Amino acid sequence: MVEYTGGSTGVSLALICAVKGYPLDIVSSDAFAAEKLAHMRALGAEVHVIASDQGRMTEKLTRDMIEAARVITTDTGGFWTDQLNNTDQLQAYHTMADEIWAQTDGRLDAFVQIVGTAASLRGNVEQLRKYNDSITMVAIEPAESAVLSGRPTGAHKIDGVGAGFVVPLWDDSVADAIELVSTEEATAMAVRLGTQEGLLAGTSTGANVVVALRMAERLPPTSTIVTVMCDTGMKYLSK
């Protein structure tokens, strides 16, 4: 199996491949937390590291990773999961949306999620709109590379999101609004979550909470806003 990844998808694949006995080639980068690279290696993955521009996520880096994965797939005859184009993952997010609806007892006013492959946002939105099409759906992207908002591509340091171009699974009809969060804002919120709330998470989660709080200021006090803690902050301690 082959995949390009900032690390979270790669860790999941490495876990499954270890159990199933499949060889796994991962293409990642020094732009992403060292803990994630180490975790994939510890699970037996062969990790190919692509050099970044000063540890920043850029369009060039994403495309370099994709090309490296393509070459490895050709050379090995492996199966490329190709997360940016893989629609199979949407079904899992439909199930996640069912859980959100059940756990909020159907009282949901806004759903907020940052965009990586766009599958999490799109899959949840598709299913949640079946329950209530008046829920406000908000996409988030790095302020430094706000391509979904029609701005120029740029460089940022929010792990695992903001590919630097409009990703294939993105659909303009999915989000009612797009909010921008800077790396600085996302990092500060991740630190705040840990030190004030005891919630240890990464910068993409920080960005999610920044926008969830913005929505809380705009919507009535009785509103229910859902966002996602994408993964554990144990993966980001070096950053």
Describe this protein's structure.
The chain is an alpha/beta fold and 239 residues long. The chain folds into two domains: 2-76, Rossmann fold (3-Layer(aba) Sandwich); 90-236, Rossmann fold (3-Layer(aba) Sandwich). Helices cover 41% and strands 13% of the residues. It has seven helices and seven strands. A four-stranded parallel sheet has the order 6-5-4-7, sandwiched between helices. It has a three-stranded parallel sheet with strand order 1-2-3, with helices on both faces. Helix 1 runs parallel beside helix 2 (34-42) and helix 4 packs across helix 5. The model has no long low-confidence stretch (mean pLDDT 96).
Q: Write down the CATH class of the largest domain.
A: Alpha Beta
The major pleated sheet works out as: 4 strands, parallel
**How much β-strand is present in the residues?**
5-15%
- The overall average pLDDT, rounded, is 96
Give the distance, in angstroms, between the N- and C-terminal Cα atoms: 29 Å
Strand elements, count? 7
Helical run tally: 7
Uncertain runs with pLDDT below 50, 5 residues or more?
A: none
Described by the principal axes of the CA atoms, the overall outline is globular
Cα gyration radius (Å): 18 Å
By CATH, the architecture of the largest domain is named 3-Layer(aba) Sandwich
> What is the CATH topology classification name of the largest domain?
Rossmann fold
Pattern of helices and strands: EHEHEHHEHEEHHE
Q: What structural class is derived from the secondary structure elements? A: alpha/beta
| Main sheet strand line-up | 6-5-4-7
Structural domain count: 2
| Approximate helicity band | 40-55%
